[in-house]
Amino acid sequence: MTITARTSSDVFNRPAARFTAAGIDIRASALGQCRRALWYTATEQPATNPPEPDSLTLLEAGNALEPVVVHAMRRSGWSVTPADRDEPMSVSVEAVPGLTVTGHPDATGCPPAEGGAAAAVEQFLFGDDEPSAQTDELVIEVKTRGPEAFKRWRTLGAERSHPESVAQAACYSLGLYGECRDVVIATLDTGSRTWDHELIPAARAEHAWRNATGRLQALADHHEAFGPDPEALPERDFTASDWQCQRCPHLNRCQPGGAGEAEDDGESAEPVSDETARAALCEYEQVQGRIKSLEADKRGALKTLQHWLQGKGERKARLEGSAKQRTVGMVQSRRYSVDHTRLNALLEPGQRAEIVTEQTSEYLRVS
Ligand code: SF4
């Protein structure tokens, strides 16, 4: 594996893929991207669906918040060295022959517990109060996520929710240290402004890297077979209804009419006019208003009943209602919570997938 290190100020603006004298170079943060999209970028096809200004603002806001995560980690006792934002250190790793992955690590550092990452996890899990010697520093990949994505990451673990970020951190570890060490994914919830971290053991980080580079082998083979030919396209990795295509800057070139097709999926046979939709919205608002007021009345009545029960010194009593006698009683409910950080540290991604399953449902929200 070839490892080089260099410094560059324009590294943040690099394209996701480009041809080099040695083959293809992929930006580390684009490791999970569609291979055809990477090919369009490398062959310098102009974007047919450039990102909306709002998406760019979201991206810039995420980048701007990264130093906030570093400050929060330091306050929690982490030793963190963030990248120099003007002159970030860039690392380049040969993933497969003819294909390199290049990027800039967000930060490096060590967990707060003495004894480093492994001991920190051990201490955290088993309360071991005999710390071992200080470990080497680790790559820290800093992410900002919206509330839903943050919850998903915490619940499923980074290898399931965002495997490309684990592969990215593993790449930096290889580039910086010449070996795949444990890596840390530190994530800020942009909604609640809370942060958390996940430590991925070296063997699992390396596995994520192997998966990512296995995918990229096909791109290197394609380049080997066709050279930098913009007409010879690799297979599509996604279909028009996938979010990857919906956000792809090359959607209209790759799948002309794809955006429209995806939008049509949920349409009913009978088109609904704007006027009818507006009437439905007004009706919805009126019903919502009535529900809110009824809910407030219900809460008030329940409070009165609770005071009545407390006054009697009982937990349950019978009372004549308007049509029948009813039981009024206190009910105890119990909630169980799972510490996903501990669960993720203890189990392999495959075992977690058997235990923490995911269901998706769709509903219409009016806000
Ligand atoms: S539109 Fe979809 S399949 Fe086509 S290049 Fe983009 S992500 Fe890949």
What would you say about this model in short?
With 367 residues, the chain is α+β, with helices and mostly antiparallel strands.
Defining traits:
367 residues, alpha+beta, Lambda Exonuclease, Chain A, 5-stranded mixed β-sheet, 13 helices, 45% helix, 18% strand, globular, binds iron/sulfur cluster
Helix content: 40-55%
Poorly predicted runs of 5 or more residues: 1-9, 128-134, 262-267
Mean pLDDT: 87
- Please give the count of helices: 13
Secondary-structure-based class equals alpha+beta
Order of helices and strands: EEEHHEEEEHEHHHEEHHHHHEEHH
Radius of gyration: 27 Å
CATH fold topology? Lambda Exonuclease, Chain A
Listed once per kind, the bound small molecules are:
iron/sulfur cluster
Shape: globular
Bin the strand percentage. Answer: 15-25%
Work out the count of structural domains.
Answer: 1
Q: What's the total count of β strands?
A: 12
Instruction: Write down the CATH class.
Output: Alpha Beta
Q: Mind telling me which CATH architecture this is?
A: Alpha-Beta Complex
Order of strands in the sheet with the most strands?
1-5-6-3-2
Distance between the termini: 52 Å
What composes the largest sheet?
5 strands, mixed
Description:
- The chain is an alpha+beta fold and 367 residues long.
- The protein has a single domain, classed as Lambda Exonuclease, Chain A (Alpha-Beta Complex), CATH 3.90.320.
- 45% of the residues lie in helices and 18% in strands.
- The chain has 13 helices and 12 strands.
- It has helices at residues 35-42, 53-75, 116-126, 147-156, 158-161, 163-177, 202-226, 243-246, 251-254, 258-264, 274-312, 340-346, 349-355; strands at 3-7, 17-20, 23-27, 79-82, 89-96, 99-103, 107-110, 138-145, 183-189, 195-200, 316-320, 325-329.
- The strands form 3 sheets. A 5-stranded mixed sheet has the order 1-5-6-3-2. It has a 5-stranded mixed sheet with strand order 4-7-8-9-10, with helices on both faces. It has a two-stranded antiparallel ribbon with strand order 11-12.
- A hairpin with a 5-residue loop joins strand 9 and strand 10.
- The longest helix is centred in the C-terminal third of the chain and has 39 residues, at 274-312.
- The chain is globular.
- The two termini are 52 Å apart.
- The model is unreliable at 1-9, 128-134 and 262-267 (pLDDT under 50).
- Bound molecules: iron/sulfur cluster (SF4).
